[in-house]
Every structure is written in structure tokens, then in C-alpha cells.
Task: structure prediction
Amino acid sequence: MSDQKISDEALRAPLEALSGQDTDVARAYLDCGLPPIRSQDAGFNGLVGMIISQQVSVQSAKAILGRLVEQVGEITPENILALDDDGMKAAGLSRPKQRYTRGLAEDVLAGRLQLEHLPDMSDDEVIDHLIQVKGIGRWTCEVYLLFALKRPDVMPAADLALQEAMKHLKGLEHRPTPKEMYELSENWRPHRSAGARFLWHYYRHAGIA
Result:
């Protein structure tokens, strides 16, 4: 996942629309401005990156992914399955993530997971297709929808940074649950992806961490 300092102009229109309907977003948007460009590869390579990103910082994920590329040259199902335990460990993958990446590779090669069909599926169909893979939960599915498939109305409600940002944005006493995140962002439709991108930006900009 790339994270640049160039402002993402594609978010200007949806964030201006959100600012017009949510005064909290409007106030924070005036203070923080546009989020930076951020994207994620689609396909097998992108999903491996998202598995690596689970429960680690962006910097740690980038370092692990870089070492994995050094080990295999190119992240393909065949190359992942050819890499032994020592190579996986040298790249920095935990035991569970070693199992998940290998399982993902096996599912792709066996045809159980058909990543080339995902762009033609609805958001719910993408989630139903991806979540069958061990190690891929709803958060990973939603992040894939948001960053790899560029879907406009996705809220990764289980993301702790988003929850903390929403807590501060709305002046809540407690960090909202995933269910509450969906409820709080319901009136952001059909721009919840831009809202989520802004919450991550707000989280870093406001020094909430």
C-alpha cells in the first residue's frame, strides 16, 4: 500500500458533499484538508499485502512486504508456495500469516478463489467470495473494496484507528463499536469510502494515536 504526501484530488468532491451534510466533518475538513493519495494493488499481490498489514503499523507492513519481495522476486501464488518456512520467517511473517498467505495461494491456484472476477461483483458478493479464505475477515474485505477496487461507499468499521477518529470527531465518550460505526456513518452514504479515508487522515493529523 502506497501512502504519499500528495493530496488526493479525487476526494475533494465527495468530502465537500459530506461537509455539506455533516458539520463535524466540515469543521475537521477545514482544519485537516484533503487526505494524501493512497492506493493498494489489486489481485493476489494486494491481498498478500493486506494480510501482512493486519494488526501491524503501516511502516512495519511495508518493511515485511519489502523483505518478502526480496525473498521471492515477485509475489505470485507459485512463488509463495515455493518459499520455505525459513524464508517466510526471514521476511518477518508470523506463523499465522505464513499459513494465511500459503492458504491464499492454494485457493487461487485451485480455482476456489477467482480474483479476476471481483471487479464485476457487487460489494457484498466480493465480501462473500473473499471471506471464505482463512485469514481474511470482513476488515480485509472492506479494505480491499476501498483501496484495490476503488468502491465509493465502504466503511471498514472494525478498524481501530477509524473508531478512535470517529470518537474524537463526534465527541463521544467511548470508542464506537463496529455496529455503531456503521450507524454513525449511515448518513455519509454514498460517500463512506471518502469518509473513511478522511477519518484515517484526521487520526494522523490530529495526533490521536
